[in-house]
Amino acid sequence: MTANDFIPKPYSNQVANGKVTWESPSNIALVKYWGKKKNQIPENPSISFTLNNCKTITTLTYTAKDNHDDFEFEVFLDGKQKEDFKPKIATFFQRVESYLPFLKRFQFKIETSNTFPHSSGIASSASGMSALALCLMSIERELNPEISEEEFKAKASFLARLGSGSACRSIEGDLIVWGENETVEGSTDLFGVKYPYTVHDNFKEYQDTILLVDRGEKQVSSTVGHNLMHGHPFAAQRFEQAHENLAKLKPILEVGDLKQFIALIESEALTLHAMMMTSMPYFILMKPNTLEIIQKIWAFREKTGLHIGFTLDAGANVHVLYPKAEATHILEFIKDELVGYCQNEQYICDQIGFGAKLIDN
Ligand code: PMV
After folding, report:
1. Gap from CA of 314 to ligand 1 centroid (Å)
2. How many CB atoms within 10 Å of residue 68?
């Protein structure tokens, strides 16, 4: 399969106007994507848990227009016009135009909101871009009702990837693989696919409590961070390691080995940040409280033997991961000992989820 397979045949239907709403979740990578080639093609494969509660809800209103020269759209966040969102969406429209040839034929109103506080340091790009991609796919389905459910999801993921790489892992759940690799049959660089092998019940309703350590703007965007992997002294080994870690994860997921799972995801999280610290220029996204929390988690795990672990994304916040069966005890520890390290004591309780939902069409 190539990107050209997503260029549609001439549409069979005509559409004058309409409105569609999708909600799409965020996701958290276990094996991290860090480094990309042209057109948002990842340098290495990644796998993520789809989240359940952290999501973006987007309504797209579309009206046919006479001139087909330019993109026309307005964007609203929580009912307020957001001029500063426009450049990113304009870039996205340019990137996907050849796959969605109707884009210049409509005037769009994009209304979006997040279930998590904005400027919480939780990236809304994965949930936001996937929700928008799904809305656009709903228009394509109006124009071509023949499209199968499978094609719909694959193309939505393909389009979301062109908006923000990790967004391609937010269409479905509960475990999604993106990036061609030998472990997962059917994996591709073009879009996310459902993890196709056995997953032990230990991972059912796996919990993710997100500790909001720093809500500030990141000093280094992930776009800049990805680019710094070009010419990075450890890039080749890192990309190889991601393939190896994905292979190691398969038996861990199958037998439900929580100890090995924690070792692997924590190593992945720290490796991601090690890549940042060894880039040129180098940078650090963790904050002192990120490290305090990590130390506390390790001490608590040592003391209790409970299966608490962490991962990090490209920021200072800590995702605390643990099995549902141990939730009562671990949540108590989080509230008593960790929440004090969060900005304004803010944290979000989430768990593994099953992907985007059509709310209204
Ligand atoms: O999707 P982007 O370009 O924002 O990159 C996300 C990268 C990480 O969150 C750090 C890792 C990942 O795989 O999600």
Report:
1. 7
2. 12
Residues 135 and 242 in one domain: no
Do 217 and 189 belong to one domain?
A: no
Query: What number of other Cβ atoms are within 10 A of residue 219's Cβ?
Result: 9
Query: Count of domains in the chain?
Result: 2
> Does one domain contain both 19 and 106?
yes
- pLDDT tens readout for residues 138-193: 999 999 999 999 999 999 999 999 999 999 999 999 999 999 999 999 999 999 99
What is the rounded average pLDDT for all residues in the chain? 96
State whether the beta carbon of 314 lies less than 6 angstroms from ligand 1: yes
Q: Are residues 240 and 193 in the same domain?
A: no
Same domain? For 224 and 314 the reply is yes
**Closest protein CA for atom 9 of ligand 1:** 313
Ligand 1 pocket, 40 CB below 6 A? no
Are 176 and 134 in a shared domain? yes
Provide the Cα torsion 224, 228, 230, 235; round to 10°.
Answer: -130
Each residue's pLDDT tens digit, 267-308: 999 999 999 999 999 999 999 999 999 999 999 999 999 999
User: CA quadruple 239, 272, 277, 123: dihedral positive or negative?
Assistant: positive
